Amino acid sequence: MRKSVESVVLAVVLLGMTVGFLFALPERVRADPTVDYIMVVDAPGGAGSWVASRDYAFGDNDTFWAAGYNTSSGWVQDVPVYWLFTSHGIARGNQVIRVNYTYGSSAKIYTNGYGIAQIRAYYHLSPNNLTNDTGPLRVSVDNVDSVIVRSKQGGAGTWVGPTTYQSGDKDKFYAAAYDSSGNFLGDIVSNWTSTNLSVGYLYSSPSGRNGGCEGSGINGTCYPLINFYASAIGHTYVNATPVGTSITNMTGKLTVTGVGIDYIQIRDAPNDHGQVLGTRTYYEREQDTFYAASYNFTLIYRGDVTGDWTTNDSAVCQVKGYSGNQAHGSSVQLLLVGVGNCTVTVNATTISGVISNTTGTLTVLPRTTLTVDANGGKDYTKIQDAVDAAGDGYTIEVYPAIYYENVVVNKEIEIVGTDRTGVVLDGGGSGTALYLGTDRIVIHNFTILNAGYGVFNDQTNNTRIYHMTIKDYTIGLNNSYTLNAWVAYNLIRDGEIGVVAYKAYDDAIRYNEIAYNTAYGGKGYNAHLRNCFNWNSLHNNGIGYYYDPTTELPPMEFNGNVLIDNDIGVKVESSSAITVTGNSISGGSDGVQFLYSSSEVSYNTISGVLTGIRFHESSSNITYNTIVAVAAGIVGDTGSPRIEGNDITVTSGNAMDLDNLDGAIIQGNNVHGGTIAISNSHVAVLSVLDSNVILTDTTVDSLTLDASSTVEIRHTVRVQAVDANGGGVGGAKVTVRDAQDNLAFSGTTEPDGFTPTFALTTGVQTSVSFTDRNPFSIDVSSGSMQGALKTTVDASRDIVVTMSSSASPWIIAIIAIAMLAAAFLAGALSIERSKYALFLFFLPLYTRLNHDKTLENYNRGRVFQYIDLNPGTHYNAILAALSINNGALVYHLDVLQREGLVTSRQEGMYRRFYPADMQPPPILENGTTESQLRVLKAIQEMPGITQKELSKFLGLKQSTLAYQIDRLTAMGCITSEKQGRTVHYTSKHGGN
Questions:
Q1: CA distance 297 to 441
Q2: Which of 497, 571, 569 is closest to 539 using CA atoms?
Q3: 299-335 pLDDT, tens per residue?
């Protein structure tokens, strides 16, 4: 036994020595605590709090730190993280805020414009990466009173007045925002428009959809701007409208001229690429495309310029414009129609005169013909054998039969069928039926079917594919890295995707019938296209046309197409580089659908669809469309679109259903007596014609109504029935009536005491009158319990009604006596001090009904939380904020004070309440606190100062400062004057 005890003692001694040794180790030898989780906080060194949410005015900035914590020991260190944005869409967060670093232990944020964003800290820690998100970071632009389009960032440079550019010039514009005093606030994200896109177009950097940006990309700095490209001779104006506002500013006249152009060259590729056109040899039915490149002797290349194109022999060479009309533009399509020689000339008009250039001699040679017939009797029985035997310039003429082949063409040849339906190339169910791998191939007049790819057009220049039937495929035609392909008059049907344009440049896909594709009729991405997908018929496809590039490009036109009975007519995702104009769309669910995209949707005719136009997170210009729909004309949420001049007729539903918009402009739309429903939004401009507008939880900066329009203002609420202890009463009957005694709601409460959320119409506005439906009378009953409340509703909120049991006869007698005495008590009850004392006098009667634990009671917990968040608040303020009846509030305040959770003291006419662990500020002369004297002194020394300026000068939070200003105003120490959107404060007694 003794030995056992000695062993135990020895073990304890050894353990103690080991522990002592460990604690004696130098600190660098001990293992640091691990980082188990991180938080985005507002101060370094473990001193900050999690950034739960922030409200900023435009122009504000802030700094965040990534704090690493151990679950046991707490803060370990500030850790280096990647700073990302969590919102959806291309750089959505960048539209609201930007950061100065993408990687580091801290990041400074700057406001970019109106909206809500969140920041994510991403800590790369093997094997488990850690993340933490801020709460919502809200940026208001209410302080922005004007904007100027300037030539440099940061308020530098000058207003962009009348400016002259040469074709090909580029420029950057900045929307500089100012407050009502003319103080520069910052460059702000805006909606930008050019009045003449053919003369000068605008484009964003890849990381800054709709509003532009420059910096390190999606997850990094993104400074608001727009890029301007001078594309053709003429003039335009550029306009900026900050998102969330209706204020605008326009540049002066931007003129694109030929000044400084000393000579031009005709080249076979755009943007100074390719070769100068000297002599060149072609074969019949080929095509080529020429570009007019301009040059200055000193500055060299100045861009492709617009000119008039002519040929000296149209029987050999035909020149065609991209719109199928006269050959006018910066490029021309050349069709070689006959054997012989010709030249092509371009005349570019500049203010210095006409500058010309002419090609060398273009020779068109006759073709050598080889024939193919699978049945024999011709040169070959297989198409591939003929291709292998042919030389450049040959024609392979194919006779009716089914050819089970996968043909590869790497020569400048023509393949033509003698019968479009009789000549069939069968790909065998997989692979590629026809592969094109060189320039100026001509394919026409036969059928391709049964393949993975019908035609794969791979890195070619000026191929021509026309009068073809392509069907039974996975992808009918794939143009990949092509230049100036011409695809026309084809029938492409019965597959998964009809036509794909991938990183194509200036292809023309027109006059085709594309139908019965399960996924997409046409799909384009990362393609720089002029007049692509024009004048086609797309019908009975899953999506008629789908555009989803991974990078922004100059705007592409989708124009003049007829789309019938597609599930969705046109869908665009994560891009603004497209204009959808002049199309006819009918049948299906959605006519046009824009997701995370901000583009031009104009002058389309949309009919026979469930929904005309649908958008999500978009700042598109949706203008001058004619929509006849079944369920809704325009449906959308999130973004700041401009919806103007549309003509909308809906069979059964709303003309517009809009939600969560930021600074939208909605004006001049004729909905023929229909309804425009807008909810949870901030609308900059609302001007309506013959419309019934329903605004639910929505604010409008500028409202204009015609004589036949009305606006119904609604706010969503819930009513909660509670007993005297604050517990929810389920199954209670709730009736709500407006000021005109109209029934506004009738229903019952759920088990938690809440009704379902419902909307109350609080007012109706016409062009000549406003009808106020406030206040609302709310009656609640359940068995012997009843409650009633009269309240004004001017925002979305919960309304709490306290219920009590029906009174016995002796209580009724007391109430009658109390009513007779009410007139005598009215004066006393108008003073908060008297009201509180009076109800405190009757408190012993009231407390007999309440013996619950201190903070388990729902309403008492609300009272305690309100005081904790608003120290120094007074009785009337609590009463108004929490909608608790007088007796219940006095009772709860008394319990909180008796239990030591709250303290109070009389300060002038108010009794003020403080958390027990907070030392109230000292009361100095005339009942003024030390904090109030600091504020008063600052106002005396700087008369006319604003609350924001006071906050920065005194280092006080705006919420704390607002409380002190309210106190000083109530005491008659200061006065306020509103100037524009800001309030200025002055002492009533000067500097004394």
A1: 38
A2: 569
A3: 788 778 888 899 999 999 999 876 555 688 788 989 9
Residue 251 CA to residue 709 CA, distance in Å, equals: 35
**Six-digit token pair at 163?**
């400016």
pLDDT tens digits, one per residue of 66-89: 999 998 888 999 999 888 876 543
Structural tokens at position 341: 């020689």
Say how far apart CA 907 and CA 62 lie, in whole Å: 36
Rounded distance between C-alpha atoms, residue 144 and residue 224, angstroms: 15
0.70 surpassed by pTM: no
**Secondary structure of the chain: what % helix, strand, coil (to 5)?**
15, 50, 40
Kindly tell me the burial class for residue 610, based on how many C-beta atoms sit within 10 Å of its own C-beta (0-12, 13-18, 19 or more).
middle
Extended beta strands in 481-548, E state = 486-488, 491-502, 508-510, 513-525, 537-539, 543-547
Percent of the chain past pLDDT 90, that is, above it, reads: 48
Residue 548, φ and ψ in degrees, nearest 5: -145, 70
Ordered strands of the 776-782 beta sheet = 743-748, 733-737, 776-782, 785-791, 804-805
Tokens of 486: 């011409």
User: Inter-axis angle of helices 858-869 and 875-882, to 10 degrees?
Assistant: 120
CB atoms closer than 10 angstroms to residue 564: 18
DSSP assigned state of 819: H
Give CA–CA dist 837/489, Å, rounded: 90
The pLDDT, as a whole number, for residue 464 is 96
Residue 185 has pLDDT above 80, yes or no: yes
Is 594 in contact with 570 (CB distance < 8 Å)? no
Q: Report the 10 Å Cβ neighbour count for 484.
A: 26
Instruction: Tell me the per-residue pLDDT of 934-970, one tens digit each, with 9 for 90 and over.
Output: 788 888 878 888 887 887 777 666 656 776 787 788 7
Distances (CA, A) of 182 to 147, 149, 352, 752, 847: 10, 15, 42, 52, 59
Output the six-digit token pair for 992.
């004394």
Q: Which amino acid is at 363?
A: T
Which position has the token pair 């065998």?
428
- Tokens 């106020």 locate to 772
CA distance 951 to 965: 11
pLDDT of residue 816: 47
